Recover the amino acids of this structure.
């Protein structure tokens, strides 16, 4: 395809009419991906950003208050020494894994339907892991001494390994977000030119590394992307395992559990998949991506989410059953199931397991609205589930029989809400600067979004076109990574339409 | 095993600095401030709990007294409220507290309910000790099974992390170095310029 030079005014004029059926698939993709970067923000967008920013600022203010008045102002005490902030750390970093791992697995297995979702999933992974990592600071009683973890290394502390693992994961997430962006940055520069945003043009030019899209460049880029995707899966598993060991290596009943690493990892993937669905749903509606992100994407992600939900339900049962049966250290179990934490626990069972799985299982509710509701339920209830894991064990007395208590305060609530608000805020701002969709990948897989489907519908046409062109080896490899695969398939689709 | 590892809390007045080896509950020196006095004692030598007793000179029955422990971790001003108790017919407010750390610990009390007061009017320092007798340290500090292999484990884990970093950064460097070079070397093919 020849380079499409569209100046920004013409582009805006085109986008003013919306994505019409008269434009080609490639044009529609480009317009939808770049529109949030060039269009004037709407009143609703500005209002949303203002409100979210205020919530984040309120959270920072609450943290300042906590620094002045101590962790006690957040409801912490000597018998509830770990509480809401460690829950935030686990929950936010956990949802990050979902985005990264889902994207990595779909990439490695050549699932071309992933294309409209990858940028959103990887962006969500990046934003949430940064927010999750920042939650470590309110969790610390003496945050000004954080740097000492590097200076006075204590390798026998799980917290040191948490630091190493999370740091490594953040690096991998950043690289995993950047690499697929390289072709898109070149495309954006080609579309928008340098006249109105020379600074952005220069930055994109530097970051796109002189991308031309030739075969050898693609081979290098896809090789690197595959390697990082391959690394990020075991990395995500190991990082959340390490996070779970911060609990499991204590001698505290309810935490010292061998099941904790897979328990945490599955919870992370479960809630992470749910968050990808929520983000995809919100951005689909907010940025009019209905043509690209369809019911099919939600249903497939819904199946993944339901499968993970069942595994997590099994692990929850296994955790409760093995300790509850022996009764040796089961005080926290009775507190969880029928004691003071019974309401949040059963809320999780209902909103985090029964309803989402039922919604996915029932054909009538297995639609975009239903799956979005189910995913919201999963995200919220999995946060509550982490709270139910942390608090009963933390407040269980190791000496004596006096259970500790934890009460939420306005400080801990405000800081947590700030983290929640920071996710949409971070994503909305991120996609003011980078394309919302993975343009290059979407153009490669074509309008039907799947080389499998293309094969299904157009085998005969492909043979006619591609074998005739002497390039049959590129057909139907299923991963859309062939040097010219996308264009040949695209040509095929045009042919079929005609 | 439980009896060996169980923490036995003893408390004694810091001024006396006497390590109470064993024996029944002991009297603690009380400091008085205005109308309130505070005393701290262990329930018994083998108990986990301390009894914090505040006595109102006026003997105002029903008056709330808030008890505190000083900590730099949970409270910026150093005082963490641990609970409240009402003054009974004996003129005393009694609160049972289970300490969660050992060492020199300051306790405090003030007349008033939990929400309205944040600083005690009377304080007292005590030593909170583990059972000082009869229990070998090795029985309390378990011999960790990974103790001997830990050094190798640490080196192994650090090596794994280093390899992961090298692979990730290596992938990035490969792209950053090779892609511009390939752009300079060859003209775009059929996808060029996208």
């Amino acid at each position: 395809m020849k380079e499409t030079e569209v100046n920004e005014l013409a582009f805006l004029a085109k986008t003013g009419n919306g994505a019409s059926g008269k434009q080609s698939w490639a044009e529609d993709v480009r317009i939808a991906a770049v529109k949030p970067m060039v269009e004037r923000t709407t009143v609703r967008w500005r209002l949303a950003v203002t409100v979210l920013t205020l919530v984040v600022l309120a959270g920072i203010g609450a943290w300042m208050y906590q620094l002045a008045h101590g962790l006690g102002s957040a409801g912490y005490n000597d018998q509830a020494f770990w509480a809401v902030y460690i829950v935030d750390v686990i929950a936010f970093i956990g949802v990050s894994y979902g985005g990264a791992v889902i994207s990595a697995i779909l990439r490695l297995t050549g699932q071309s339907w992933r294309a409209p979702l990858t940028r959103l999933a990887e962006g969500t992974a990046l934003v949430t892991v940064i927010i999750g990592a920042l939650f470590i600071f309110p969790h610390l009683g003496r945050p000004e001494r954080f740097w000492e973890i590097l200076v006075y290394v204590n390798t026998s502390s799980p917290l040191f390994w948490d630091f190493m693992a999370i740091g490594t994961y953040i690096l991998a997430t950043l690289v995993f977000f950047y690499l697929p962006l390289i072709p898109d940055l070149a495309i954006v520069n080609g579309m928008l030119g340098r006249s109105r945003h020379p600074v952005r043009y220069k930055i994109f030019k530097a970051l796109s590394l002189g991308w031309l899209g030739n075969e050898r460049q693609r081979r290098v880029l896809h090789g690197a992307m595959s390697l990082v995707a391959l690394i990020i899966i075991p990395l995500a598993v190991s990082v959340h395992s390490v996070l779970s060991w911060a609990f499991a290596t204590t001698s505290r009943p309810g935490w010292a559990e061998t099941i904790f690493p897979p328990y945490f990892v599955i919870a992370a993937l479960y809630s992470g998949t749910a968050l990808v669905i929520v983000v995809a749903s919100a951005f689909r509606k907010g940025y009019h991506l209905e043509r690209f992100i369809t019911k099919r994407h939600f249903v497939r992600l819904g199946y993944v989410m339901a499968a993970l939900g069942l595994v997590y339900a099994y692990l929850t049962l296994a955790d409760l059953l093995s300790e509850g049966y022996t009764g040796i250290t089961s005080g926290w179990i009775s507190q969880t199931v029928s004691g003071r934490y019974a309401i949040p626990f059963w809320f999780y069972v209902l909103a985090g397991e029964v309803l989402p799985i039922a919604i996915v299982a029932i054909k009538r509710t297995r639609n975009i609205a239903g799956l979005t509701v189910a995913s919201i339920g999963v995200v919220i209830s999995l946060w509550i589930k982490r709270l139910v894991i942390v608090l009963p064990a933390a407040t269980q007395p190791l000496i004596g029989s006096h259970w500790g208590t934890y009460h939420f305060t306005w400080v801990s609530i405000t800081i947590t809400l700030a983290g929640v608000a920071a996710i949409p805020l971070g994503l909305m701002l991120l996609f003011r600067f980078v394309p919302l969709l993975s343009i290059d990948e979407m153009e490669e897989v074509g309008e039907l979004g799947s080389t499998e489907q293309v094969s299904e519908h157009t085998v005969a046409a492909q043979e006619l076109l591609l074998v005739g062109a002497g390039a049959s080896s590129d057909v139907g490899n299923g991963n859309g990574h062939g040097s010219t695969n996308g264009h040949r398939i695209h040509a095929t689709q045009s042919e079929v339409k005609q | 095993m439980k009896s060996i590892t169980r923490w036995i809390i003893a408390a004694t007045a810091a001024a006396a600095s006497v390590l109470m080896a064993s024996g029944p509950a002991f009297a603690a020196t009380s400091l008085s401030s205005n109308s309130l006095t505070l005393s701290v004692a262990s329930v018994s030598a083998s108990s986990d709990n301390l009894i914090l007793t505040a006595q109102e000179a006026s003997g105002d029955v029903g008056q709330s007294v808030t008890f505190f422990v000083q900590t730099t971790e949970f409270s910026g001003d150093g005082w963490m409220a641990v609970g409240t108790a009402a003054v009974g017919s004996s003129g005393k407010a009694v609160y049972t507290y289970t300490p969660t750390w050992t060492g020199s610990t300051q306790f405090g009390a003030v007349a008033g309910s939990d929400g309205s007061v944040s600083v005690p009017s009377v304080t007292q320092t005590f030593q909170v000790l583990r059972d000082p007798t009869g229990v070998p340290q090795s029985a309390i500090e378990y011999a960790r099974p990974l103790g001997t292999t830990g050094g190798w484990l640490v080196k192994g884990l650090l090596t794994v992390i280093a390899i992961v970093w090298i692979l990730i950064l290596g992938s990035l460097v490969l792209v950053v170095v090779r892609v511009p070079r390939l752009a300079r070397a060859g003209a775009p093919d059929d996808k060029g310029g996208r």
Remarks:
- The two ends of chain A are 20 Å apart (CA to CA).
- Residues 1-10, 12-22, 450-498 of chain A have pLDDT under 50 and may be disordered.
- Chain A touches chain B through 61 residues (CB under 8 Å).
- Residues 9-299+405-445 of chain A form one domain.
